[in-house]
Amino acid sequence: MIEAIGNTPLIRLKHASEATGCEIYGKAEFMNPGGSVKDRAALAIIKDAFARGALKEGGTVVEGTAGNTGIGLTLVAQAMGCKAVIVVPETQSREKLDFLRMIGADLRLVPAKPYRDPGNYVHVSQRLAQEMGAFWANQFDNTANREGHRHSTAPEIWAQLDGKIDAFTCSCGTGGTLAGVALGLRDLAQKANVKAPEIVLADPEGSGLYGWVKDNDLSVQGSSITEGIGQSRITANLDGSAPDHAERISDSEALEEIFRLTQEEGLSVGGSSGINVASAIRTARRLGPGHHIVTILSDGGARYQSKLFNPEFLKSKNLPTPPWM
Fold first, then answer.
1. First-to-final CA distance of the chain
2. Count of domains for the chain
3. Are 25 and 10 in contact (CB under 8 A)?
4. pTM of the model
5. For the chain, N or C: smaller number of CB within 10 Å?
6. Secondary structure letter of residue 3 according to DSSP
7. Do 52 and 199 fall into the same domain?
8. Residue 323 in domain
């Protein structure tokens, strides 16, 4: 199972490419064993913990997560002879919660609270790990997360495009994917003595990261139905990544891309993928025709049936519904 993580395909996105005159690609991270890009972070964090002696076979991993990292950590932990205790806000999609239970995670649900509140799921998981004497994964501030992407995701993208990449864009939760890929691509560009790709942070409404990139302002505006992305602080993983640009994407714009990918290209993806593709299209239009842009298809749509593909839920939020429903 461990060797099955990574080396995912890079898929040319037909509509996005044709609409912009660029070549836009999505890294198919939904094809990892746990079904998301977070498998990479989980593997990197656990391997690093083993290497440092912070975790041993038979030990327990504790983490606070919106769901996907918990899935990745549970599967990787079990493959390496450990157990996982996963703390999740109760507002996350039913599908992810059911999946965590199905694969044997010790699931602890907590009320959704902001990071500044001691009851926030991240703080609860830290206290729980201390009480249990277990290893706290700390995905937001454990830089093994971004190093995993720096040494796996970035080199894969570079090799798949023979170094012909003008921009990379993706959304941030922990910041591990964006920062790790950014650092890795810059390393590779420097070695090849070529211009480094532009790094674009894609951000949902209700997050402060767009303002951070644009004006060093982390204030939050609006809200989003997306899960696991958006942030109102600079994590250790994101610190020092220095994105070149940012795009703020609305839920409606993201949903249009999700529905188009499903109906026109046969790709079923989740909310962060919609934000990522919308950002890639905006980036392509800003840079002009002829550029090569890469983004992340973070996870599959099946984890969001009760929200993104539920007409009643979407109508209650005044959002567009899937045209085939």
1. 36
2. 2
3. yes
4. 0.96
5. C
6. G
7. no
8. no
User: In terms of domains, do 254 and 189 share one?
Assistant: yes
From 27, 38, 96, 307, the catalytic residue? 38
Q: Which residues contact 15 (CB under 8 A, 6 or more apart)?
A: 260, 261, 264, 265
Task: Say if residue 163 is in the same domain as residue 282.
Answer: yes
Query: Can you give the pLDDT of all 325 residues of the chain as single tens digits?
Result: 999 999 999 999 999 999 999 999 999 999 999 999 999 999 999 999 999 999 999 999 999 998 899 999 999 999 999 999 999 999 888 898 999 999 999 999 999 998 889 999 999 999 999 999 999 999 999 999 999 999 999 999 999 999 999 999 999 999 999 999 999 999 999 999 999 999 999 999 999 999 999 999 999 889 999 988 999 899 999 999 999 999 999 999 999 999 999 999 999 999 999 999 999 999 999 999 999 999 999 999 999 999 999 999 999 999 999 999 8
Residue whose structure tokens are 């937001």: 140
Of 53, 3, 62, the C-alpha closest to 32 is: 3
Distance of CA 28 to the CA centre of its chain: 12
At which of 84, 117, 139 does a domain end?
139
